[in-house]
Every structure is written in C-alpha cells, then in structure tokens.
Amino acid sequence: MAAGQIGYGVPPSLSAKVTGSFAYLTIRDRMPTILTKAVDTIHRNKNKFFEEHGEEGISAEKQAISLLSKLRNELQTDKPLLELMDGLSDTESWNQYMQRQQRQLGDQELVSWFKSPWLYVECYMYRRIQEAICPPINNFDVFNEGKTQSFFESQQAVMALCTYLGDVQKSMEKLSENQLSEYFNKLLQVSLWGNKCDLSISAGQENSQKASPIDSLPSLQSFILVNDSNMVWLTLNSSRRPEGSGQKTADRVDIVLDNAGFELVTDLVLADFLVSSGLARHIHFHGKCFPWFVSDVTANDFQWTIRQTMAANHKWMSKSGFQWQSYLNEGIWSYHDHPFWTQPHEFCDMAADAPDLYATLQEADLVLFKGDLNYRKLTGDRAWGHAVDFCTALRGFEPAPLCSLRTLKANVQVGLQLGQGEKLSTEDPSWMTNGKYAVIQFHGPKLE
Ligand SMILES: O=P(O)(O)OC[C@@]1(O)O[C@H](CO)[C@@H](O)[C@@H]1O
Ligand SMILES: [Mn+2]
After folding, report:
1. ipTM of the modeled complex
2. Which of 40, 179, 316, 369 could form a disulfide with 374, with the two C-beta atoms 3.0–4.6 Å apart?
3. From CA 274, how far away is CA 269, in angstroms rounded?
C-alpha cells in the first residue's frame, strides 16, 4: 500500500465533525477571528495601497475585503469549498487535492469546512487569503504587523540569547564533550520553547517572549513529555566526519522553520551554535513561500530578521546578525521555500507528491521540524492513541533522521508511555492544546 493511503489501523483525520472538539472550536471561533483581523489590516492599509498603486490599489483593497468577507461567510455557514481560480503555480495542485478529498468523501456530501479534515480546511483558508489579495497588492503580507511586533516585543529575550551565544562561542575551543552537549541541550530547548510564540493559536493576540529564555529552562523541564535530545546528539556526532577523512563531510542539518519573531531568532541561534561548534557544516532552512498560519516564516521575514539583528544597538545582537549574514553569503547557511510546505498534504504523501523535496531532505544528516502544524502533518493530524509509536504515525515518512521540536497546541500526540496521556488528562484536561507542554521527539536509526 502506498504511503499515506488509508489502511488498516490508520485512524480518521481530526475534523470539526466532532462538535466541541479543538478542531471544531478552531474553525468556528479562531479562524473567523483571523479573517476579521485580516480584513481590518487591509482596510487600515488603504492609503498605503493608494500611494503605491493609485486607483488600482484601492480597487484591489476593496476586492480583497469583499473576497475575505465572503470567505468568512462560507466558513461560518459550512459552505462547500470552492476551487481556486487565481491561476498561480500551485493552483492546479490545490484543486487536485480538493478532488482527492471529494473522492474520499464520496458523492454523499461535498467537501466543506466542518466535514472535511481540519488540517485540509485550515491550510485551505490561508491559500484562499492568498487568492483574495490580488495584484497590484499581492505582495502585501497581511500578517506582517504581528510578526514584526513579536520580534520587537521580545528584544530583551533576544539580547539575552545573543549574549549567551557570544559567551559560549568565546570558550568554544576549550569546551569538553560534556560541556558542548550541555550547551547543545540548552539551545535545543530554547528553540523548542520558542514555539510557544505562535500567533495562530492566539488568533493574532500578541504573545512575545518576555522572560530570559535560558533562565526559564529549569522550570519548564518537567513539561517536556518526550525528550529524545540524546538521540539527536548521537545522530549529530555520528554524522560528524574528521576533516580529510575522505568520508561524507557535508554534514547538513535541515531546519523546517515555523514562526517568525522570537522563535525564528531561537532557530538562528541554534543553527549558529551547530556550525560554530562543528556539529554541522551546513544548515538548510525551509520556510513558507507565502504568508501562512499568521506567524510562519517567509523569505521576507527571514531576511528582515537578520537585517534587524545586524542593525541592533546591542553588541552581541549585531555581532550575531553579521555572523548570520556571512553564513548566508558563504553558502554555509541557505534558505529554501518549496511550495509543498504551504500545501495541505500529510508528510507521508511527500515522497509521492513532492519527490524533489523528499530527495532534498534525504541528503540531510538530521531534519528538525519546528512547531505544532509540522507535527500535525508528520502524524497526519489523525486521532492516534497516545501510546502509538511515532514511527507508526509517520507512515513511511523517513527521508532522514528527524526530530520534532513542538509545543502542544492541537489534540494529536503519539509516542507517549502507556497511561501517560490518561494521567495528563486528569492533571490538566487541556494539556494537548494549551501550549504548556512540549516534545523533543526523534525518529531514526537507534544509536548507542
Ligand atoms: O505550527 P505552530 O505555529 O506551532 O502552531 C500552529 C497552530 O497554532 O495553528 C493551529 C491552530 O489554529 C494549530 O495547529 C496550531 O495550534
Ligand atoms: Mn506556525
């Protein structure tokens, strides 16, 4: 059976068919709120559109508001989903996916917001937002304000983190293996908890990082439900080759990014540490090719964040920013944004639906997946039992050793100990969606 096909033992997709479920509440409440805020943002930028594009900008603004309002009404009244009509490079792929969803539903009911898989309709909403914002304002990022605010509101934490990185790098040469792994674990956890700062779960409400990211780690330790850091460390060390050994030397770690703002800074700091410690020689970053899930990283966010860090009036921030820019100039770091990351597919479909991307990931020694949406796609956003193995839920998606760094914000979680999920439900009924808990969950060859 092809990977991703519904087979024996594969549970149903999460959807709003279950009244009162997190998917139901997201589609009923949070997604319309996100659309309302998008309409408001576009309206507030009307003058900007006029200044830049004259009357054409005004008519595009009016059209965007009308299309987004129509979209919100379709969503709130559970209308059938509509084919995309904007003729962009991914339009056909989206419409084919819709037909695939319709085939799975059969001809008894039409693909719609509250009946189709949550993963699909939520991704579809963001692609419809893209369709609504037409030329000449099509490059306007309706979520940009929230992403830049998250960065500016987190300055104290960013400065503390860049200072910490600078201190570590000053003594890098003298560090023992144990000290190196300690710093690695700390920065891996900082990147993990950076994922709390996600504007989709907060429906755009500001949620920047205020406290010092390093000092808060000990108090967060007990909220890490699965911690496979040791497997990540062993994988990195097993892939390191001595210079000139003639063996594979292009040690490469891929980071599939999630949110801009503070979370992106934590990922850049981790990536800098991986390179400056020699744990990796190249980092490939994977972002989104259009605005996605409110706070996800686009190429513009990636470049803007590095430029802002370079320009900071803070020694260690600007030092980090210049270092990151030179990594990019030297090709040690590279940024990629394959269209697959802004499509609705479960990752077990990647080999079939985006073989080029799957082949790229196969060249990595380790792939880090940041955040909740990536976790939902890794596990197919299905109602797995909590003690089901991560490997089972991946359903054949294993391009390379991989690790999810995710704070829980959706009710899908696998790979727990028997009874662990039930225990958590009694202690904290909203443990899967309140963002307090996290996993560092690895899948790959077992190493000693
Ligand atoms: O991927 P991220 O940024 O960690 O989270 C994305 C997210 O906020 O969006 C959905 C809720 O609307 C959930 O999948 C998840 O909570
Ligand atoms: Mn996100």
Report:
1. 0.96
2. 369
3. 9
